[in-house]
């Protein structure tokens, strides 16, 4: 069993549920070191005083905040510890909200919450099942590793899941970041065909159907280079569709999507027909064998 990275209590009303926090996700990136080109010499990073050029030990480094004009306010590590939220062991839920009301933009990282005390496992199950029945999530704040987090606590089948969230002022305004955006498309033929395409391409969400093909290609590249081979991938870059060709492109896309969907459905029907035929044939063979056996006995 994995070790909890945080432990404490979920508090809602006068109820306290002891829980542990566990990582729910892991990334599968390939690690690379840095080398000087043409050599096997590793590149190392050092903390160096830019004035003296001498390396500075970690314990002698402090933080400074730029206040403008080349001036910095220096802050000592113990000063940050004094003002940091206390090492709280409480996930204090102050409200429950409908899950559908939360914009996914606010979600940051997922963790599992597991019961840390077998004697209080029933209270864990009670909260989980109540959240599932109401389709709600508890909004809470907690402290982990010297930082305060906003979080949602929701039910996901057998387990409680905690999602750390961005605070409202951490989400950027798209108008400020992107400038003027296109107006509404209007209820024209293009919009109608775009809706038809979305409907034709719609399906069930199957996470296992999607794989990280880029990481696989990196692995193949590393393996090939290790064996002295060369790997070449030739793919054309996509080009923007000309506005005058959008309707034709949408129409062709809808037809292609519908054709692909009908092709997927056909093999399943054929397979079912074949099975029935095979079953009939085998049954016929068995009955023939029985008849010949009875004839022999009569003889």
UniProtKB/TrEMBL annotation:
Residues 53-183 form the Ku domain. InterPro entries: DNA_bd_Ku70/Ku80, Prok_Ku, SPOC-like_C_dom_sf. CDD domains: KU_like. Gene3D superfamilies: 2.40.290.10. The keyword Cell division does not apply. GO terms for molecular function: double-stranded DNA binding. Keywords: DNA damage, DNA recombination, DNA repair, DNA-binding. The keyword DNA repair applies. Residues 260-273, 282-299 have a biased composition (Basic residues). Residues 235-299 are annotated as: Disordered. It comes from the Bacteria. PANTHER family: NON-HOMOLOGOUS END JOINING PROTEIN KU (PTHR41251:SF1). With LigD forms a non-homologous end joining (NHEJ) DNA repair enzyme, which repairs dsDNA breaks with reduced fidelity. Binds linear dsDNA with 5'- and 3'- overhangs but not closed circular dsDNA nor ssDNA. Recruits and stimulates the ligase activity of LigD. Belongs to the prokaryotic Ku family. Homodimer. Interacts with LigD. This is Non-homologous end joining protein Ku. It comes from Kribbella shirazensis. The gene is ku.
């Amino acid at each position: 069993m994995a070790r909890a990275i945080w432990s404490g209590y979920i508090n809602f009303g006068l109820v306290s549920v002891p829980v542990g926090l566990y990582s729910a996700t892991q990334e599968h990136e390939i690690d690379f070191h840095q080398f000087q080109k043409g050599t096997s010499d590793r590149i190392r990073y050092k903390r160096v005083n830019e004035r003296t050029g001498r390396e500075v030990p970690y314990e002698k480094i402090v933080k400074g905040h730029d206040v403008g004009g080349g001036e910095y306010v220096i802050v000592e590590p113990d000063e940050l510890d004094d003002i940091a939220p206390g090492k709280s062991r409480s996930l204090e839920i102050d409200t429950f909200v409908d899950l559908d009301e939360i914009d996914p933009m606010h979600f940051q990282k997922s963790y599992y919450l597991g019961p840390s005390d077998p004697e209080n496992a029933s209270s864990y199950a009670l909260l989980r099942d109540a959240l599932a029945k109401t389709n709600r999530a508890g909004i809470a704040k907690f402290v982990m590793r010297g930082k305060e987090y906003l979080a949602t606590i929701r039910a996901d089948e057998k387990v409680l899941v905690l999602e750390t969230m961005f605070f409202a002022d951490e989400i950027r305004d798209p108008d400020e970041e992107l400038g003027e955006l296109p107006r509404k498309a209007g209820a024209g033929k293009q919009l109608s065909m775009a809706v038809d395409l979305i409907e034709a391409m719609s399906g069930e969400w199957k996470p296992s159907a999607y794989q990280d093909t880029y990481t696989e290609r990196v692995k193949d590249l590393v393996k090939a280079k290790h064996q002295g081979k060369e790997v070449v991938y030739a793919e054309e870059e996509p080009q923007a569709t000309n506005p005058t060709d959008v309707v034709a492109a949408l129409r062709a896309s809808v037809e292609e999507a519908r054709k692909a969907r009908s092709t997927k459905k056909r093999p399943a029907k054929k397979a079912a027909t074949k099975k029935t035929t095979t079953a009939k044939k085998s049954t016929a063979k068995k009955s023939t064998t029985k008849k010949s056996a009875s004839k022999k006995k009569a003889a």
